[in-house]
Amino acid sequence: MLRRLPPFRRAEATGSVAAEAAETSDAFVSLDAVSAVPGSAPVAPAERRRRRVTVKRVLLGLLVLVVASGAVAYPMRSKFTAQGADLSRRVIGDENTARIEGWYFRLQDRVEKTKYSLFGGETDPFADSSVRVDVIPKPEGLSVVYWVGKDASGQPAIADLFRPPPMKPPETRQLRDDPASGEGVWTTSGLPRSSPTDMLMAKTFIRPDKSRPYATVGVLLIDSRRVRLTMSGGTVDPGGDLGVKGPGNIPSEVQKNLLVAWNGGFKGPHGGFGMVADGKTYRSLRDGLASMAVTKDGQIFMGEWGRTLAWRDDFVAVRQNAVLLVENGEVSKRTAEGNDTWGYVNVNSAEFITWRSAVGLTKDGNLLVAAGTSLSAASLAQALWAAGAWTAMQLDINNPYVLTSLFFAQPDGSLRAERFMDAMPGSASRFLSTQERDFMYVTVEDRISLQAPGSYR
């Protein structure tokens, strides 16, 4: 854009216009305009080149400043991203914010692809092999309720299996011709209260996207018979906008048995997905949504609300989010749907390549907790299917929110928190403080109640 200059002295024109061109942010003053000023002398080509170089140097300096500022802010990017997204929604609205997020994710994905093609990268999310101290408290005592009945011949029979058989991890499927070392292999390494001889938990990782070798999903397997899953509403989400606020914390009396905690689902207004927990209805449950439910005695169910899962009087918690990723051992065909299926706006958030998290159940009923980076809804579903999920549903997405924390008991009675995957953003001890958003956690509950042959709880 050219700015017209009024007639004035040649010294003023030649000395101030170039400076204005470097300083102004709303217009560019052409050096040709200087020559066009009545009564001014033409600017020599050499002088023009010198002035152009000066402008370039200014721009280069600004670029260096931006890069340096980015380097300083990078360690705190998760906090900035979360605050920036909330501010953007208030200023320009949800729909426009989602579009900007989509552009950002596409740019970030291209950067990741380029970086990996040039420099390679780590494909094992559990590469950190540091030793973790884990003190297993002595149990206060084991209560056994045994079952007495009659066998097939009508004779009295007493169940003598007071402990269940060890958890058997599901068989995994290879999605790549060149699996990385450890990919698809279950291990108890680095997990609290778990060992090959006492497999309370196990983990593996899956790379579901051939076009993105760095896209990795860490999967945690938990023996559902020996733990209790608890859902807790946050102080703000999912029901704060409706006047229903949750406790947002893990009670101190259960922290000694705490194993793992992870993020919940989308924000309350972003789709209106239902949640019941803490004796409250944060948002009403709706038909057609992926749902996970927990009963009073700790059983876990998952399905589509209104079709394969419905309210029972013994339910104490239900969380809904989008639609099922996996159902009956098969990847859902709905993973490619857009609009409000995977979010709350017309932008197809199923295609966002970003951090994503999920929960699932194996065919044996054991709990799966999964999270990974550079994922779409479809690639997350593929990873869970490959890890042996019989049913699964997505939770929250984007790196400020996706976090799974492991907790290790220490000799002094405190807990040491560790991120499940090394690359996860945020502090591993986040869930030990009050949360604004809903989350889930698991505690050890080794009790046995044989109500029928082979059952456990």
Cα gyration radius (Å):
29 Å
Major β-sheet strand ordering = 4-5-16-15-17-13-14
Number of strands: 21
Shape label: globular
Order of helices and strands: HHHHHEEEEEEEEEEEEEEEEHEEEEE
Q: Report the sheet-strand fraction.
A: 15-25%
Distance between the termini: 76 Å
> How many DSSP helices?
6
| Portion of residues within helices | 10-25%
Structural class: alpha+beta
The largest sheet, given as strand count, sense and whether it forms a barrel, is: 7 strands, antiparallel
The poorly predicted ranges are 1-38, 66-80, 448-457
Quote the average pLDDT: 78
SSE topology sketch:
Elements: H1 10-23, H2 32-36, H3 45-73, H4 77-92, H5 94-119, E1 144-145, E2 148-150, E3 156-158, E4 201-206, E5 217-222, E6 227-232, E7 258-263, E8 275-277, E9 280-283, E10 290-295, E11 300-304, E12 315-320, E13 324-327, E14 330-331, E15 354-361, E16 367-375, H6 377-386, E17 391-397, E18 404-409, E19 415-419, E20 439-444, E21 448-449
Parallel strand pairs: 1-21
Antiparallel strand pairs: 2-3, 4-5, 5-16, 6-20, 7-18, 7-20, 8-9, 8-12, 10-11, 10-12, 13-14, 13-17, 15-16, 15-17, 18-19
Please supply descriptive tags for the structure shown above.
457 residues, alpha+beta, 6 helices, disordered N terminus, disordered C terminus
Task: Describe the model.
The protein has 457 residues and is an alpha+beta fold. It has a domain at 144-449. Helices cover 22% and strands 23% of the residues. It has helices at 10-23, 32-36, 45-73, 77-92, 94-119, 377-386; strands at 144-145, 148-150, 156-158, 201-206, 217-222, 227-232, 258-263, 275-277, 280-283, 290-295, 300-304, 315-320, 324-327, 330-331, 354-361, 367-375, 391-397, 404-409, 415-419, 439-444, 448-449. The chain has a 7-stranded antiparallel beta sheet with strand order 4-5-16-15-17-13-14, covered by helices on one side. Strand 10 (290-295) and strand 11 form a beta hairpin. Helix 4 (77-92) packs antiparallel against helix 5. The longest helix is centred in the N-terminal third of the chain and has 29 residues, at 45-73. The chain is globular, with a radius of gyration of 29 Å. The termini are far apart.
